[in-house]
Q: What sequence folds into this?
């Protein structure tokens, strides 16, 4: 275990031997919310909500988030703060067993590969933001053609590089830089969300979209919808990928983990609600199918914005909104392997950030050029390199990472309750969920998302 030894978490020493990196109490909340809000809530959440009963599914999603998502989030935060390190290091430090370092490394690998393709999509949002504000987007009417021409070339690689440079610059500044970044961008995101929501609610036909979103249809709730809601609650909180655990290592000892977990869960829930109140009114007003995935954001909605007065402004704000959501998630994803490099090899933050960013960019290039077929031979079976990376990281590595967290806190780490700061009654409930409920449901979500379990 000598490789993982480090000065005490509260001694004032950080990963590289200098002053400890810490978030302020509000800084952690902003950073954690920034990690949880992402692109999925803009194009995946509306689709699954409409498919499984509107407000009925939203209620189910809320219940899953409260009963499973937040307890697992609390477990990740407790491990991070208790172990004061990246996933692999914190698990070894708290258990005293090297084998847990291998388990923790799984989530670090997952975060690295998710970052490699997530930066590609984040680059798309920046490109479209520039196009929309410059009024170059939509000069014709073939929005699908414009999108496929873009992803079919090498321009996405340039925008991927821009995203990596921005993300690396923020991470290079450490916990204080990440905190300042999120304290600026998260309030900005809320302002843009509210502004766009008010605008689209004024569209003719928007009321039908609001009714579709907020009117419950419990007849559409099925066994499958429970697993879908649980999976979205789990992944929308960035669980299983080591981000919340890594951020937890920068938390103040006096901060209430329970209150922090509730605040992060509430922020994620609010973002999902506002996203729905933007997407559904817009899609209904213009007769757009909300279940189009990325096509909704980069083809259908640009067409809708182009038909609005001052559509370049609202479309531009929409893509800035997507870019903010993407970049705040990118920062948390990159911080995971950077923190591990600092812990494991005692690298300084500059070296760890530069090396990790370069490797992540290089690994992400095949994803950037495989989506639109810029280079042949990057498809295997039904999926491109991009899709395979997404599938393996999101549907296999992350559920396993979440399962490791629940087993570790539920059965291995004896001081988890003290670190979490729970009363005796709440600790019993929390431990029961982590030992018996969450592992079973995570396995079911894993089997369903990987295509093994079908309904």
A:
């Amino acid at each position: 275990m000598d490789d993982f030894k480090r000065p005490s978490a509260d001694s004032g020493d950080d990963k590289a031997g200098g002053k400890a990196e810490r978030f302020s109490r509000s800084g952690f909340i902003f950073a954690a919310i920034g990690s949880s809000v992402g692109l999925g809530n803009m194009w995946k959440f509306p689709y699954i909500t409409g498919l499984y009963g509107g407000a009925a599914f939203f209620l189910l999603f809320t219940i899953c988030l409260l009963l499973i998502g937040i307890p697992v989030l609390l477990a990740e935060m407790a491990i991070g703060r208790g172990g004061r390190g990246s996933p692999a290091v914190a698990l070894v430090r708290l258990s005293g067993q090297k084998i847990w370092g291998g388990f923790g490394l799984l989530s670090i690998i997952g975060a690295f590969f998710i970052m490699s393709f997530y930066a590609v999509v984040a680059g798309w949002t920046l490109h479209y933001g520039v196009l929309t504000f410059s009024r170059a987007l939509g000069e014709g009417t073939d929005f699908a053609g414009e999108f496929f021409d873009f992803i079919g070339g090498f321009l996405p690689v340039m925008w991927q590089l821009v995203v990596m440079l921005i993300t690396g610059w923020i991470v290079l500044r450490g916990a204080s830089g990440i905190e300042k970044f999120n304290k600026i961008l998260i309030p900005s995101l809320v302002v843009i969300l509210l502004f766009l929501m008010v605008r689209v609610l004024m569209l003719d036909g928007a009321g039908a979209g609001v009714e579709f979103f907020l009117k419950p249809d419990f007849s559409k709730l099925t066994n499958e919808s429970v697993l879908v809601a649980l999976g979205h609650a789990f992944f929308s909180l960035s669980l299983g990928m080591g981000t919340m655990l890594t951020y937890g290592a920068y938390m103040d000892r006096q901060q209430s983990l329970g209150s922090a977990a509730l605040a992060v869960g509430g922020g994620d829930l609010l973002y999902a609600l506002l996203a729905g109140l933007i997407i559904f009114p817009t899609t209904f007003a213009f007769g757009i199918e909300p279940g189009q995935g990325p096509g909704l954001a980069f083809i259908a909605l640009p067409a809708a914005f182009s038909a609005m007065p001052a559509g370049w402004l609202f479309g531009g704000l929409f893509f800035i909104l997507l870019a903010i959501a993407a970049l705040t998630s990118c920062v948390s994803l990159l911080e995971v392997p950077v923190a591990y490099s600092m812990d494991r090899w005692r690298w300084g933050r500059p070296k760890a950030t530069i090396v990790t960013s370069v490797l992540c960019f290089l690994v992400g290039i095949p994803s950037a050029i495989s989506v639109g077929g810029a280079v042949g031979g990057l498809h295997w079976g039904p999926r491109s390199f991009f899709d395979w990376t997404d599938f393996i990281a999101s549907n296999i590595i992350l559920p396993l990472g979440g399962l490791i967290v629940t087993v570790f806190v539920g059965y291995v780490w004896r001081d988890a309750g003290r670190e979490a700061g729970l009363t005796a009654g709440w600790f019993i409930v929390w431990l029961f969920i982590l030992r018996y409920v969450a592992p079973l449901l995570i396995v079911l979500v894993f089997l369903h998302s990987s295509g093994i379990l079908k309904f």
About this structure: The radius of gyration is 21 Å. The longest strand covers residues 379-380.
